[in-house]
Amino acid sequence: MSTEGLEARVDRSDARPLHVQIRDILHQQIKDHILVPGDALPTEEELQQQFGVARSVVRQALASLADLGLIHRQRGRGSVVAAAPALRRFVNRAGGLDEQAAARGQHLRTHVLRLEATITPEEASAALGTARTWEIERVRYLERVPVIYERHWVPRDLFPHFTVDLLEGASLLALMRDHGYASVGGPRQVQAVAAEPDIARALDVSVGSPLLLLEGVTQDVHGRGLDRFHVWHRANTVFDVDARVQAPTPVSQERIVQLRKLVSDLESALTELEVGESR
């Protein structure tokens, strides 16, 4: 464990309770990787001495960190920084992220930050064939840890009924399907980017932290754009790709007979041409 940065102190002029300040200090040290997964936190007695507070205050702070899933508290062994849960998803599969997490015994929770009729970016307008869109921002949590930040544009004329309450905790593609617009996927691309301030704040990471950005368009069976999206993933996301070598197409016996006949006909034609030229 690195000890750099562990000298932080509480501010008694701060309106926040002392246990909240201690929680936030330790939380920031985890975000900044001063404390990394597997590191043991200072003991309750050491934290009590460092911050000059009662042990009950330290215990409240540690309990809050445990509730956030940031540390594990073990009787007789103290507190240890928890590893961020890994989210796995198939990059070549549209939708079904909740089901993919559930198949691994994980629960993915969705919280809507914003739903507004705003000015549509040109790339979204072109993909959706309209500038009348909803802009939706969501954060998705895995085991209480924010792992995905999403920004979507969807046509308002197709989905005029969308509300924050309707979208909260729901699958966007399932809602589209329930209202008569089944998606079949569309083009996607993945790239590594640095976390901008608003996204870093939503994902509880430091500004500039590496993220994986998945962006693309979801279309229906008629090629109509249903969703233009940008989805930022924390670095603990694993993208699975089922890559296969395409097997050669087998040639039927009938086709072989046809090709042999064609070769025979060509040879006969060449022979006739050669005989004609020799006369």
TrEMBL record:
Annotated ranges, domain HTH gntR-type: 16-84
Keywords: DNA-binding, Transcription, Transcription regulation
Alphabetized InterPro entries for the sequence: Bact_HTH_transcr_reg, Chorismate_lyase_/UTRA_dom_sf, Tscrpt_reg_HTH_GntR, UTRA, WH-like_DNA-bd_sf, WH_DNA-bd_sf
UniProt superkingdom: Bacteria
PANTHER family: GNTR-FAMILY TRANSCRIPTIONAL REGULATOR, MANNOSYL-D-GLYCERATE TRANSPORT/METABOLISM SYSTEM REPRESSOR MNGR-RELATED
Protein name, per record: GntR family transcriptional regulator
Species, as recorded: Pseudonocardia charpentierae
